[in-house]
Structure formats: structure tokens, C-alpha cells
Amino acid sequence: MPEGDTVWRAARRLHAALAGQELTGSDFRVPRYATLDLSGQTVDEIRSRGKHLLMRIGALTVHSHLGMDGSWQIYQPGERWRKPAFQARLILSTSTTTAVGFALAALDVVSRADEDTLVGHLGPDLLGPDWDADEALRRLRQEPDRPIGLALLDQRNLAGIGNVYRCELCFIARVHPSTPVGRVTDLPAMVLKSKQLLEVNKDRGRRSTIGSPARGESFWVYGRARRPCGRCGTPIVHDLQGNTDADQRDVYYCPHCQPLAS
């Protein structure tokens, strides 16, 4: 599942493959940009911003968001793709590399000066140079009655946390996901741990929040419904959390280690 660490790795790979190179072709397979041709433009840099990916090419920024199922893959020219062609949304080619964005949830092209119209609403980036723990805390505390499980997913508070990290952070802090932000005993520690988890996982091929993946388990609670809690043995609970039916997301927690205070 693409979260901030996944997008950070994708940006690093794409930057290594494309930065400084002149594009020999571009193929936008979305109606809005079907006639846009970036051939002859130089790729200056590729960076992540939370879960967003920014390709700065000439005077433009190509923005993409992976959503639940998207990915960027890098190929040699003529190499067979590992995903079906009908899922391709953007193909960027140089003399040595073909980069393909598959099943992208969002794809936009704006001038560099207008990048903020796409990502300016985001909170401090957990893996970015603008990371500011105090500002993240300030934003989280603006809505003290909001469930912490929803506040952590809100990219306007801090950028990069997805559903996996949301569930794991609540477990590590022994906080029920429905606990109001204002009743979280040590919110600064949760913010610090979020930074630590993404930092330690950004260079890993296999994400883990439990320490060494060699233990045979990657997560404390995520995806472990009805399996015993690693701390107390109580079966892990699976539920849904969201403000509306449309934004319900899976949530996992241990009812013993993470009791919801009355």
C-alpha cells in the first residue's frame, strides 16, 4: 500500500533514472493531456511530498498520486512491461530509460510556480526537508475532539501517514483509534514515532513496524484480525473508521492494549 515511504522510494528511483536527461518522448494516456508533448525538455528533479510525487521538467511540474494501486516502474527501452498496457497513464522516455506510471489515482501538469495549488494544503512532510514536529502538533491540536485515527490520516496535519502507519502508531502508543486527539496522553511521542517509523522504513524493501522483519511478522496489528496480540495474546479486532460511508477505512487494534476510555 503506497504511503509516504513508498512514494519517497519511488521518487528516489525515478530521480536517479531520469534527472539531467532530455526526454525523447512523453505519452499522456489521459484525455486532459493527450496532446501534451514534453519531448526535448530536461528532467530537472523528482521529489516526493508526503504521498504526492512531483516531477519538475522544464517550466512545468508533473504531479502524480499513487492512490491505492498506482505505481511507477522503470524499464530499459524495449523491455517488456510487468503490468498491462491499459493501466499505463503516463510514459516518459529518454535514450536510456522508460518510466511508466500505472493506475495513477491523480495526474496533473502545472507550471512550477503553481505547485502549491496541488500540494500547498499539506502539513509538514515526515520525510521532507520542511519537517516541523511543532507545526504538526499544532495542526493536530486544532481539532481536539477528532478521533486520533482520523486526524493521523489527514494529510493537512502531517503528510505521509497512511492506513498501515495509522493502525501501528495507535497500537504502539496504546491508544484506541477512536480516542479524541485532546485525550491522547502523549501526542508529541506519537508524532515523534511517526517520523521514526517512516525514516527507518524508507530504505527497506519490506515495511516493518515491529523491529526486525526476520521475526516473521511485519506489523503489530495491521492485517492481523482475529490473530493474537503480540503483547497480550488478545485477538486483534478489525473495524471500519471514517466520517462517512464513502471514506470508511479498515482499522485494526487490540481491545486490551488499546481500550477506549468511557
Automatic annotation (TrEMBL):
<keyword id="KW-0227">DNA damage</keyword>
<dbReference type="InterPro" id="IPR044090">
    <property type="entry name" value="Nei2_N"/>
</dbReference>
<dbReference type="Pfam" id="PF06831">
    <property type="entry name" value="H2TH"/>
</dbReference>
<keyword id="KW-0479">Metal-binding</keyword>
<keyword id="KW-0511">Multifunctional enzyme</keyword>
<dbReference type="Pfam" id="PF01149">
    <property type="entry name" value="Fapy_DNA_glyco"/>
</dbReference>
<keyword id="KW-0378">Hydrolase</keyword>
<comment type="similarity">
    <text>Belongs to the FPG family.</text>
</comment>
<feature type="domain" description="Formamidopyrimidine-DNA glycosylase catalytic">
    <location>
        <begin position="2"/>
        <end position="101"/>
    </location>
</feature>
<dbReference type="InterPro" id="IPR010979">
    <property type="entry name" value="Ribosomal_uS13-like_H2TH"/>
</dbReference>
<keyword id="KW-0238">DNA-binding</keyword>
<keyword id="KW-0862">Zinc</keyword>
<keyword id="KW-0234">DNA repair</keyword>
<dbReference type="InterPro" id="IPR015886">
    <property type="entry name" value="H2TH_FPG"/>
</dbReference>
<dbReference type="InterPro" id="IPR000214">
    <property type="entry name" value="Znf_DNA_glyclase/AP_lyase"/>
</dbReference>
<keyword id="KW-0326">Glycosidase</keyword>
<feature type="domain" description="FPG-type">
    <location>
        <begin position="220"/>
        <end position="259"/>
    </location>
</feature>
<dbReference type="InterPro" id="IPR035937">
    <property type="entry name" value="FPG_N"/>
</dbReference>
<keyword id="KW-0456">Lyase</keyword>
<keyword id="KW-0863">Zinc-finger</keyword>
<protein>
    <recommendedName>
        <fullName>DNA-(apurinic or apyrimidinic site) lyase</fullName>
        <ecNumber>4.2.99.18</ecNumber>
    </recommendedName>
</protein>
<dbReference type="InterPro" id="IPR012319">
    <property type="entry name" value="FPG_cat"/>
</dbReference>
